[in-house]
Amino acid sequence: MTEHSLWRFSRALHRAINERQFDQIEPLIDEEVEWTIHGPVDLFPCFGARRGREAVLQVIRQIAERVRVHRFDRESIMLGVEAASSMLRYSLTLLETNKPVRVRLAHFAQFREGRLSSIRILIDSLELAEQTVYPPHMRTVAASA
Amino acid sequence: MTEHSLWRFSRALHRAINERQFDQIEPLIDEEVEWTIHGPVDLFPCFGARRGREAVLQVIRQIAERVRVHRFDRESIMLGVEAASSMLRYSLTLLETNKPVRVRLAHFAQFREGRLSSIRILIDSLELAEQTVYPPHMRTVAASA
User: Considering the entire predicted model, what is its pTM?
Assistant: First the structure.
């Protein structure tokens, strides 16, 4: 039994982010890939929709410039023939401030001949915003509004 | 071929929320169900972990008191023998203010003998907070911080 495409892609993605080595990830991305990270693009420029291998490699490079993956736990997973979805809890380090950030995300991925052909990622964006771009008093402001 | 448990559960859940009819949903929930909506419990008391049919029915009642489901689009889906995951885009109405709210979520569900035995739900919580509890100037505050 061959390894599921998700495992190969996941390993290559984390290597790209943590070691800025893009040689393994590039051949695992379909030329016509559709990629979306749902969430506030104005707060997180890495978010949003991208189409095509070059655009996706560029986003992965942008992510690699901002964070390191410290660890991740896969809380839920479903594997299909050329599909995979999972929910993950990431512990990251923000490179700019060296600050730890924890964030949960879910992804739905499709593969074609072992290459990523589409992926949608949903992130707990408030959790992320509160640890990065929002000031600490934000929730107090909200509570008193 | 019998209908997948997800479809039956989804129909009964939306009927429970929109019509406050809980007779269909109750027998579709395992007595020992584990239920989690990830996100800020202090902002949204319906969020968090619940265990057991009664606790879950209570959360569904709380949700039914706050929102109506106007429509939903299933953007991604994976079905297994007794498992299902999907990403959904909901258009809701907040009953208190009659305000429309759009929110995206992902869920991972397990069924046992056709009954929901566990579910994890991840919501784009910033999108939800900005349309409900956060004041309109919130993002400006964040941007200038």
Answer: 0.92
